[in-house]
Design a protein that fits this description.
Helix content: 10-25%
CATH superfamily of the largest domain: Nucleoside Triphosphate Pyrophosphohydrolase
Order of helices and strands: EEHEEHHEEHEEEEHEEEEEHHH
Largest sheet: 9 strands, mixed
Protein name: Nudix hydrolase domain-containing protein
Organism: Hypocrea virens (strain Gv29-8 / FGSC 10586)
Number of helices: 8
CATH class of the largest domain: Alpha Beta
Number of domains: 2
Number of strands: 15
């Protein structure tokens, strides 16, 4: 793979597939290509007093425009609004705040960061999980998802609780108090969210990802749990992207995972939940010994 570096950052921030490097049009940009080093280097002219974040942001946008018809057209939809950016991890302090257009993350092999919350309840002594079903209008259409899940926004300043607070309100109308971790809905107490784990993975997206097929994703996911009462019923707030919330017994959740009914990274978060709750045990899966290790993939980045 090819290294992707930015300015004078001490380490690479991404790793690119050779086929993506070859297909991208780089001419007349601030991206320098070194075939001998297998390295792409974003190195725009920056003078004293310049806004480095804005300069790099413009360079990424210009590259997306130049390649609108390349790479399976993955930039085409994004270019209509140009509003969705992802923070870049692994930066030295002096470069903190740099962002990248979301569809370019998988081309440059940037680490993605997201926050997921598992909502569950207990009925008749058995765990039941509230799951979200994605609509037909989004990537991974009709797949299952956590009730609350989303990518970290640049405004979150790498603070997972800030992401959780925003996503919980946007997707389920839940209010998360970041100081106490108490959760309310319509001013009524729902429960207390608990910070559980951080999982990591490194994969390549398949055809189900649509225009992002073939993109690579080194990922980090912060996971939270929220236990609610058996009578609580959540309601989706984004009907254009969520078909509905469904309460499933844990046995059905396990079956859905085996049948690949979950969006991939959300499925990993759910797998982590089931392992933590003892709902998958040694003997349930011939690869049980590999599951924990697979949820803690070592990523080739030094500043995370």
């Amino acid at each position: 793979m090819w290294e992707f570096a930015i300015l004078d950052n001490s380490v690479p921030v991404g790793y690119m597939l050779p086929e993506h490097v070859a297909e991208m049009r780089w001419e007349n940009t601030s991206f320098n290509i070194s075939k001998s080093k297998r390295r792409i280097h974003l190195d725009p002219v920056v003078q004293q007093g310049d806004d480095v974040v804005e300069i790099c942001r413009r360079e990424f946008i210009a590259l997306c425009e130049k390649n609108v018809d390349n790479l399976n057209g993955c930039f085409r939809k994004w270019l209509k609004k140009r509003s969705d950016f992802h923070p870049i991890r692994g930066l030295d302090a002096k470069l903190a705040g740099l962002v990248i257009p979301s569809p370019a993350r998988g081309i440059f092999g940037i680490v993605t960061t997201g926050v997921h919350m598992n909502m569950f309840t207990v009925r008749n002594g058995r765990i039941h999980v509230w799951v979200s079903k994605r609509s037909q209008n989004v990537t991974y259409a009709r797949k299952l998802d956590q009730l609350v899940a989303g990518a970290m926004d640049p405004a979150d300043k790498m603070q997972p609780l800030m992401t959780l607070k925003r996503e919980a309100m946007e997707e389920a109308g839940l209010v998360v108090n970041t100081a106490t971790k108490m959760v309310t809905w319509n001013n009524a107490h729902v429960g207390k969210v608990t910070s559980e784990s951080m999982i990591s993975f490194y994969d390549q997206k398949d055809h189900i990802a649509g225009s992002e097929e073939g993109h690579v994703e080194p990922g980090i996911r912060y996971t939270y749990d929220l236990e609610v009462g058996p009578d609580f019923v959540p309601y989706p707030q984004e009907p254009e992207s969520i078909d509905g919330f469904i309460l499933k017994p844990v046995e059905e959740v396990r079956r859905d995972l085996k049948n690949a009914e979950w969006k991939p990274n959300c499925g990993l978060v759910m797998l982590d939940f089931l392992l933590r709750k003892g709902e998958i045990r040694e003997g349930d899966d011939e690869n049980f010994g590999l599951l924990r290790r697979g949820l803690a993939r070592k990523l080739p980045f030094y500043n995370l």
